[in-house]
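Hi V.,

You were right to ask for the full record rather than a summary. Here it is.
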Amino acid sequence: MDIAEQLYNSIVTIVNAFNSDFVEFEEPRSRSKRLNSQSVFKLLTSSLQKTIVQSIHQNKPMNFYKVIVLAILLWVGLPALYAYDCGEAYRYGKSIGNKDCTTVDGKPVVVETGYKYNTMKRAAAAKGVSLRINSGFRTMKEQKYFYNCYLTKKCNSGNKAAKPGYSNHQNGIALDLNTKEPAVYSWLVSNASKYGWVRTVSSEKWHWEYRGEGTPCNAFVKYTCK
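Predicted structure:
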């Protein structure tokens, strides 16, 4: 079995396992010991290079469909292979247990939300628009900070913030996006609801929540949208 065959089979195994649950490379009890996504990308890149180099040195034809699979995986990305316990989540002031997060755009995002966001992000990128997360999942401590800023107006520009335990950043469905860039907000207004994302706070154009595909774009906030 050549290196391409071995690599292809390994990736198929990983992806199949990932589709049903998270891949745990250490003790199942430890959420913090799952494979880091950066390590995955380094592994894929290195393996792809080795496949090509070995094929050249051994004067063997490359198995191109397997190389293509690797290239697609590198392009699409597997950010949620890196999952960790991001802390206790809350809805309507009550704990709903801990959530698993992944890092997207450098921010902690609940894994399920990350899937949905990345789908939308790729669609925007295809149109030349770069979405970026400014704030994702928040712990109780973080929400208390933002709420205090809202009350005192001494930090975070005094932006509106929900009471600790009541923010949808704390249950993982809310993201603050880089809507200061006109092209980003314009694209979101026209396309976000197609992917289940809508505005829910009238005073915050940057605050978007995943409410499921089919949700009317102005179901919560009245604004001109499509």
